[in-house]
């Protein structure tokens, strides 16, 4: 796994963005950027190169699921791995995210270990299918 | 029938009889008057109840303590939703302060390590660093409680709007994109755990 990969953290709560960023730093990923909803995230993704997106679901403006749909519908972005980190814990929502092509799903509150496991799993899977 | 029938029930029986009599003798206006009287008797407790609820709600909102603070805008926090938004702001500030301090402690730990420590001390520093990570992660409560507060604020807003419209209870807005937010233990039964989510995703080929 490339520790220099550029990661976009999307959450409307600045505290949560900071917590995810700190955890990623602990895991050795220091090349991160932040966005506070799907709209600003999409604008960033279309103007700068990113390797990975970690997004919340419930945000004002564009939600995380709409961001995921927009990424999968965009010719240049469609293969970008997306990890959803959200308080939404209904089966239907997890299924909806999976059907829209999410690469991983973490339910808040989560542990540092869960984040590490899911990130590793996503990149192991991508390496296996590449 | 029953001898110990309540006065309300007796009145209802009498009205129904009178309405039936009027119908049978073809007196439509008398029948309508009886039906109207019945409808009024049925809705009066409902209207009274709603009126009482509306009064109690506005009293409760009026009685909430003013939020102290250096900002003059605080004096204008005249509705419950603004107070709840203020709670989100306060917890956000406090959370950032905690995260600042945790960050500072982490660099102090690394500074100490760089100066050279024994193996035993190194293990203690690892432990401290781990705890600082856990402290930071625990601050995610601010996001989760914030989401719950926003939901409650939305409900209060709806109740308020409902009461102001002709004293009717608020209508449930049909909204397909409704998100439940963080599950509250003992209240929400919809939630699944990370283990359930993993099993589900694995079934879905992820």
Rg of chain A, Cα atoms, Å: 13 Å
β content of chain B, as a range?
Answer: under 5%
DSSP summary: helix tally of chain A: 5
Q: How many angstroms does the end-to-end distance of chain A come to?
A: 13 Å
Q: Name the shape of chain A in a single word.
A: globular
Q: Which percent bin holds the helix content of chain B?
A: 55-70%
Shape of chain B: elongated
Instruction: Report the strand count of chain A.
Output: 5
Q: How big a fraction of the residues of chain A is strand?
A: 15-25%
Major sheet description of chain B: none
Chain pair forming the biggest interface: A-B, 35 and 35 residues
Structural class by helix and strand composition of chain B: mainly alpha
Spatial order of strands in the largest sheet of chain A: 2-1-3-4-5
Query: Helix amount of chain A, in percent?
Result: 40-55%
H/E series of chain B, N to C? Answer: HHHHHH
Q: Largest sheet of chain A, if any? A: 5 strands, parallel
Enumerate the spans of chain A where pLDDT stays under 50 for 5 or more consecutive residues.
Answer: none
Order of helices and strands of chain A: EHEHEHEHEH
Features:
heterodimer; A: alpha/beta; globular; B: 206 residues; mainly alpha; 6 helices
In short:
The complex is a heterodimer of chains A (130) and B (206). Chain A has 130 residues and is an alpha/beta fold.
């Amino acid at each position: 796994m490339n520790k220099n990969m550029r990661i976009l953290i999307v959450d409307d709560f600045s505290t949560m963005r900071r917590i995810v960023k700190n955890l990623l730093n602990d895991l050795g990923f220091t090349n991160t950027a932040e966005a506070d909803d799907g709209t600003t995230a999409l604008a960033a993704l279309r103007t700068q190169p990113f390797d990975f997106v970690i997004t919340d679901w419930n945000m004002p403006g564009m939600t995380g699921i709409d961001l995921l749909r927009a990424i999968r519908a965009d010719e240049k972005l469609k293969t970008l791995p997306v990890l959803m980190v959200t308080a939404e814990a209904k089966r239907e929502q997890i299924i909806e995210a999976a059907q829209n092509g999410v690469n991983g799903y973490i339910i808040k509150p989560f542990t540092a270990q869960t984040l590490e496991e899911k990130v590793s799993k996503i990149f192991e899977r991508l390496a296996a299918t590449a | 029938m029953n001898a110990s029938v309540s006065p309300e029930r007796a009145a209802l029986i009498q009205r129904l009889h009178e309405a039936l009599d009027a119908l049978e003798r073809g007196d439509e206006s008398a029948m309508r008057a009886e039906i109207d009287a019945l409808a009024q008797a049925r809705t009066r407790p409902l209207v009274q109840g709603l009126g009482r609820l509306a009064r109690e709600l506005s009293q409760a909102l009026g009685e909430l303590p003013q939020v102290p603070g250096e900002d003059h805008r605080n004096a204008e926090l005249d509705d419950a939703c603004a107070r709840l938004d203020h709670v989100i702001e306060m917890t956000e500030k406090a959370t950032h302060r905690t995260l600042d301090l945790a960050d500072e402690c982490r660099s102090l730990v690394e500074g100490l390590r760089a100066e050279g420590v024994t193996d035993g001390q190194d293990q203690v520093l690892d432990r401290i660093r781990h705890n600082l990570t856990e402290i930071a992660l625990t601050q995610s409560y601010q996001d989760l409680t914030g989401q719950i507060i926003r939901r409650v604020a939305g409900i209060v807003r709806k109740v308020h709007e409902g009461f102001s419209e002709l004293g009717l209870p608020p209508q449930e807005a049909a909204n397909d994109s409704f998100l439940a937010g963080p599950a509250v233990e003992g209240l929400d039964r919809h939630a699944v755990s990370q283990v359930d989510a993993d099993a589900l995703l694995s079934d879905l080929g992820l």
